[in-house]
Amino acid sequence: MNTAEKQPKFNYCFIYARVSTVRQAQEGYSIDAQIQLCKEFANKLKFKVKHVFADRGESGTALDRPQFQEMLNRCEEKEVSAVIVFHIDRLARNEYDFFFIKGKFEKLGIRILSVSQPSSVENTPESHLIEGIMANVSAYYSRDNSRKTKKGMRRKFDEGWYPSWAPLGYVNIRDEATKKSIIIQDIKSASLVKKAFELYVTGDYSLTSLCKELNTLGLRGKLGGKISESTLQQILTNPFYYGLMRWSGMEKMGKHKPLITKELFNRIQHILASHRDFIIRQRKYNFLLRGVVWCEIHNRRLVAEWHFVNSNKHKKVGYYHCTNRGGCKGSYVKIEELESKVANLLKKVQFKQKFIDLILNKAKEYLNNISKTAKANKKMFQNQIKSLEAKRDKLENLLLREEISPEVFNRLYSKVESQISSIYYQIVDIEKDRSINIDFLKAILSFTRDIYNTYLKAPTFLKRRYLKLFINKVYIRDKDISYVEYQPLFKTLIKEQKVILRQNWLRR
Questions:
Q1: By CB count within 10 A, which of 68, 139, 264, 275 is most buried?
Q2: Could you give the residue ranges of the DSSP H alpha helices within 113-175?
């Protein structure tokens, strides 16, 4: 290639247009309007348009716009001597990016020409000065708008309203009385989001199984897609649903109507953490005593199943029974009846006071030991959240300044929210391991002093764990409990007289 071919062709140009929101398009900044004005400008300067590049729904604060990047690659081939835009802010919204782009173009012998602002084809000191002033004015306008937007959002937060898009289950509306944007429960999705909490707190669902259940019930995400595990995780760990707003490193109870109670939210957090430690095997029916109750006569596990009453699909009764092929009439016991009898076994268990005190002292010692490292880890995660919240705030400002489309905002915002939720999830783990709140000690105290009532109040998955602490097998004969095989550890506690176990409460 000779020297002449390496120089940009003076009479050729590229046109670049960008619009970030629908509203910008409606106000005369549409892609078509920009391109038309740029073509007329190019014709006036006797330029031939080599190619038109247009980014739709892309922010000017980001340089990774697809069409913009493609134009830069084409510029490297030195096909043109100018790039024409309607306004300099179509290329960049801050002076740093603008001067970076300008410096790149200058090395390639390419001028930036603006339709709506003073510009010159000639590369003179005056043209550089004018372009610098225009770039700084555009950056000032963008930052000033951001500052005003931030003040407005802070004022809204102080008034008790979340200054961003409402989470699933709520919608943003304009209050006609006050002419302000507020958040109310969404008629379509609020009840299903609430049901998600109510189902998960039973302990019978994993995130995967609950996703399937909610999708079957018809719950859909903000964009109409099915609920994913990450979305469900964000919902279950978002305190907004019990009324607490978190924004820009601040917390405040909001004026929106809560979907759940704080108590339910806290229980959910402990179950979330527990489910990661004890993976629940998913079954069609998650019967409590599966694997615990056995037939004494045939030494087989009892299984449970539902039977419809008189072929009525809306009325059914459940039984535990032996799986012996020849049948076993003495093993058929109603589910509620047998589960009640097994629960009554725990009425007979009582820890001695010395042993209770020992357990509580060990628990306090454990809490103190892990508290040291937990504080440091929690601070690290909180710093990460603060950084991500700053990114989220920036996206919100871009959306309110209409420099980014709702589609792009939703995609990037969801990603940041997912990262924040993931870190909150890790903080929940720290809180679970650390267990510095009094609830943990109260739970231990309750369990050691009143095992039976603690068991009754527990969700299904915790009841299984409580049973496994004491009982290995419960044998059934003639529709009743015949005898119990205890766990080795529990036998040891009885032997060492750490536990009082009342006698003569079984048939033999």
A1: 68
A2: 125-158
CATH number at residue 100: 3.40.50.1390
Q: Is residue 78 part of a domain?
A: yes
The amino acid present at 183, given as its one-letter code, is I
Domain containing 66 equals 3-149
Phi, psi at residue 306, to the nearest 5°? Answer: -95, 145
Q: Is residue 406 part of a domain?
A: no
Query: What are 226-233's contacts with CB under 8 Å, separation 24+?
Result: 230/418, 230/421, 231/168, 232/196, 232/207, 233/207, 233/272, 233/421, 233/422, 233/425
Average confidence (pLDDT) over 390-418: 75
Q: Which pLDDT does position 5 carry in this prediction?
A: 45
Q: Are residues 471 and 333 in the same domain?
A: yes
Contacts 24+ apart (CB under 8 A), 122-131: 131/88, 131/102
Per-residue pLDDT at 431: 59
Does a structural domain hold residue 427?
no
Strands 471-477 and 349-351: unpaired
Give a three-class secondary structure readout of 204-250. CCCHHHHHHHHHHHCCECCCCCECCHHHHHHHHCCHHHHCEEEECCE
pLDDT in tens, 189-205: 999 999 999 999 887 78
- Token couple for 346: 């725990």
SS (H, E, C) 423-488: HHHHHHHHHHHHCCCHHHHHHHHHHHHCHHHHHHHCCHHHHHHHHHHHEEEEEEECCEEEEEEECH
Decide which of 257, 277, 297 is a domain's last residue.
277
Q: For 372-400, write each residue's pLDDT tens digit.
A: 667 777 778 778 878 888 888 788 777 76
| 291-338 pLDDT per residue, tens | 889 999 999 899 988 877 666 666 778 889 998 888 888 889 999 999
- Residue 301 C-alpha from the chain's centroid: 41
For the chain, the average pLDDT equals 77
Q: Would you state the pLDDT for residue 168?
A: 92
The residue type of 241 is Y
- For the sheet containing 48-56, what is the strand order? 48-56, 12-19, 82-85, 111-114
Asked whether the beta carbons of 443 and 360 are under 8 A apart, the reply is no
